[in-house]
Amino acid sequence: MRSRHNRQPNGWAQWGIFFGVAAALGALVWTGWAVLGHHSILPTGTASNTQQVNIGVTDLPQSLDIRPGGATTVSGSDEASIDNLNATPSADRLLLGNVYETLVTIDQHNQPQPGLATKWNISDDGLTYTFTLPSAVTFSNGHTLDATDVVWSLQQAQSAENKSNDTGDTTNPSDTLGNLASVTNPDATTVTITLTQPNPTLLRTLSGPLGAVFDAELGDGFDYATQAAGSGPFTIADFKAGKSLTLARNDTYHGTKAASATVTITKFDDDAALSKAVTDGTVDLAANMSGKQAATLTNDSGVTVSKGTTTSKVLLAYNHGNDSLLSDEQARKAFRYLFDANAIADAQSDSAGLLSGPISQTEPGYEDLTSLFPHDVAKTQEMFAYFDPMYLTTVDLVVSEQYRSIGEAIAQQAGQLSLPPVQLEVLPEAEYAQRIAAGTWAMTVVSMNGTGDAGLFADPNSMFHYNHGEAQQAWAAARAATNDTDYESRMKAYARLVSEDAAADWLYTRACLTVARDGVSGYPTEMTDQRMDLSQVQGA
């Protein structure tokens, strides 16, 4: 007869077997669900303590100083070019949202979302913005971040903006803090911005460098060009100017921790080198690759090519100066009927869709205006027949090497006319910039990259020299809007007016191309030319 003492271990053993089998079955069910549903086997949001992700790009900053007026924001930076208006500097693209936080952020659909500010309220007259900040936020150096830092940062931004305006160094009329009356902090978690006039694009402005929050306690000795003390999910682990940038997870970050311990971004000489790096496994991800190069990888096994949208608009710009044929409305409209924008857009590997006005598909106020000037060579010939042949002198189409193929397509289409003749010149970047600055051109191909940069057509001093009183009034009306609904409707009216007057010939919206090795996840694919959220990217 067995004692009670001898039977007890057998009972525990039976329970142990039961729990072991149950755990094993549970694991099998979980794994099956994860595989069949393409879910991660790790719990969502789990941060790897050791994982490193390598990203390849073709542009990296020479400086980490993204402060307004800093090295990466001044005119003539290493990434600025006259045929790529308002392009986002790579320092802004990589640091905003990753190292430095902005009051407001923009999602991949180009919509304002809470950034450092958890919420905001706008008064009915559009003059007062009240932002609420979270408590217990710190910079990566341990300093407390509160409303005092926000006020100080905005004051510094306004000062830099005023200096920029004084020197005439402005490009995008929507990318401005506007007429600030005051910036105050009633308490540690509240910031109030008061304006003298409405600024319907203020929230978007606060998602960029002008809305970045810096540590007010840092002294003059802090080197912003090589260091950073932000409040974002990453810190700077290593920086080699123009060569590489390594981000390390900020373990004190107040939000969801970065998924990977480190992210290293390396610059490659060109797209061909970048393509080789992603296919041979040197990098896990290639960001903002050219459409032409990305197209060569679409059928490669082991990589995925993603095509996202941007607000970058490629257009055939017209010189409206008094000495240009394009100062004549009839001539501009005739050319718009002549050029087959649809064929040009279809031929471009970086095209995200046909465009027919100054506002892209993801910007407030967009409207499909393709029906305004359908391709019609006969109508073009009829319109030019009204001109005295002596008036139809040679039209200089000047482009940089970047837009050679588009320039050649335009020149070929223009060859269908006997008059006026269109002469194509493809120039090196430096010589091209000189020609544009001198105004000795009639047509050129450029891209405009910012949300709200349609306002350049309301500025007679812009490179286009477009001076249209009604357009300027329509733009001013849009800028006076006190709410999103009015702003969008007024921008739509402005865009239609400018397009109907053939201020330019808009061709297409540019796509952004991302190439990732299989198994890489959490990476952004939309608007990566402006912002790259790397907080959730994970390697294979």
Automatic annotation (TrEMBL):
Protein family membership: Belongs to the bacterial solute-binding protein 5 family.
Subcellular location per the Swiss-Prot or TrEMBL entry: Cell envelope
Chain segments carrying region Disordered: 157-183
PANTHER family: PERIPLASMIC BINDING COMPONENT OF ABC TRANSPORTER, PERIPLASMIC OLIGOPEPTIDE-BINDING PROTEIN-RELATED
Keyword Transmembrane: yes
Keywords on record: Membrane, Signal, Transmembrane, Transmembrane helix, Transport
Molecular function in Gene Ontology: peptide transmembrane transporter activity
Transmembrane segments: 12-36
Origin species: Bifidobacterium scaligerum
Main location: other
GO cellular component: ATP-binding cassette (ABC) transporter complex; cell envelope; periplasmic space
GO biological process, one term: peptide transport
Residues of the Solute-binding protein family domain: 111-451
InterPro entries assigned: Peptide/Ni-bd (IPR030678), SBP_5 (IPR039424), SBP_5_dom (IPR000914)
Alphabetical list of Gene3D superfamilies matching this protein: Dipeptide-binding Protein, Domain 1, Dipeptide-binding Protein, Domain 3, Periplasmic binding protein-like II
Keyword Nucleus belongs to the record: no
Protein name: ABC transporter substrate-binding protein
